[in-house]
Amino acid sequence: MGVSLIIKALLAFAAANSYALAAMYVSSLPLKILAVAAGVIFSLVLVIYPCKSEEGGRLGRIHRGSCLMKLFLLTFCADIAFNIYLGVSGRGWVTVLVNSIIAALLLALMFIVAAVRLYTGSVQLGIRWRAAGMLLALIPVVNIIVIIHMLSLVDEEYRFECEKTALDRQRAGERVCATKYPLLMVHGVFFRDMKLINYWGRIPAELERNGAKVFYGKQQSADSVEGCAKELVGRINEIVEQEGCEKVNIIAHSKGGLDSRYAVSLLGAADKVASITTINTPHRGCQFADYLLSKAPEGFKNAVANKYNAALKKLGDSAPDFISAVTDLTASACEEMNKVCKDAPGVYYRSVGSRSVSALGGRFPMNLSYHFVKYFDGPNDGLVSVESMKWGDDFRFVEPAGKRGITHADVIDLNRENIKGFDVREYYVSLVSELKEKGF
């Protein structure tokens, strides 16, 4: 804890308890009022500008929120001790009451402003810690512990993002992701490309900052591989015509990798695709899916499918087909597809895979499906086995040290989570920069 923060905390304590401190040394009411006014003004200045930040915008907001919350904690603890002292030292109940009210109001202002900055600025707090902060706010001691942990998350986020921003500034002129052909990012099953919530998290913005031109597949979220592949062919033709670029580089996640391979190998898109990079794609399917489809009663499958299709239609799918989408992810369906869907000559193929170390390594629902997939398919990312992810001559396996692992959602930054040992945005920068180096 810096000396500057301690000095500011002492000044904040003096400002919050200005009435009692003035009462100790002066008897004049106007001087007491003047002292309180000065304390209020100083507190407001501190709330607005608690510390200097290296960055502006969201990062500056969370840094100022963190500084202010630390000032609140220090001042709050000192204030409690001071008001107890006032009570036992016989300063009079009027002094204690008035001072407590003024201090409580100023501290409440500090806390609220700090919390708003943290809640609206931080990405890494997530829903869980935001909820914990609200639900446990009134439980003594526990609330302090929760706040301290939240501050550690925010401070690490600020440090990490500042380093990331500095790196981007340093290499801005290099345009390491400025590939010859634009990128076409293809989503997986049960998701759509939406403007408000990007399927690929913070990855596309990072690639664009480093020179990439990014487009999205925009295929339906639930349909057969063939159906989605037909949509991708149309999308590829549209991009090539619009950009006058001859070809695209495909980066596809999960089922999107199967859709892309089908479009290139069986629907004539090979001459307009320079490369295909598949991310955690079930190239050999999922035996777990075979089991579910074979064991689930027809009535149950149809009921689930009807509900999904109705929901997906509302999200933008024109003719969603849940059963076809799931069926094409089975090991048996992928085996049949691989017999006819051979790699197209002249197209560069590579694949990326990852795995969860344990069920506790990922968020819902990957933590629930992990053990089931492991039973049928072996080591997996919560949905797809590692063996099924391998395709092409170049397979990259992502596994940071420790017990965290990288799930099916982590590998596309779906949760916007900074994972120790794995910078997902920088990983994609390296993938795309390699495409640039290869002349794609």
Question: Can you describe this structure?
Answer:
This protein has 440 residues and is of the alpha/beta class. It folds into two domains: 3-165, no CATH class; 177-437, Alpha/Beta hydrolase fold, catalytic domain (Rossmann fold, 3-Layer(aba) Sandwich), CATH 3.40.50. It is built from 17 helices and six strands. α1 runs antiparallel to α3 (29-48), α2 runs antiparallel to α5 (93-121) and α8 (203-209) packs across α17 (424-437). The longest helix is centred in the N-terminal third of the chain and has 32 residues, at 57-88. The mean pLDDT is 91.
What are its keywords?
single chain; 440 residues; alpha/beta; Rossmann fold; 2 domains; six-stranded parallel beta sheet; 57% helix
- Superfamily (CATH H level) name of the largest domain: Alpha/Beta hydrolase fold, catalytic domain
Do you know the CATH topology of the largest domain? Rossmann fold
Poorly predicted parts: none
Distance between the termini: 49 Å
What radius of gyration results from the CA coordinates? 28 Å
* Tally of structural domains: 2
Could you tell me the strand content as a percent range? Answer: 5-15%
Q: Give the overall shape.
A: elongated
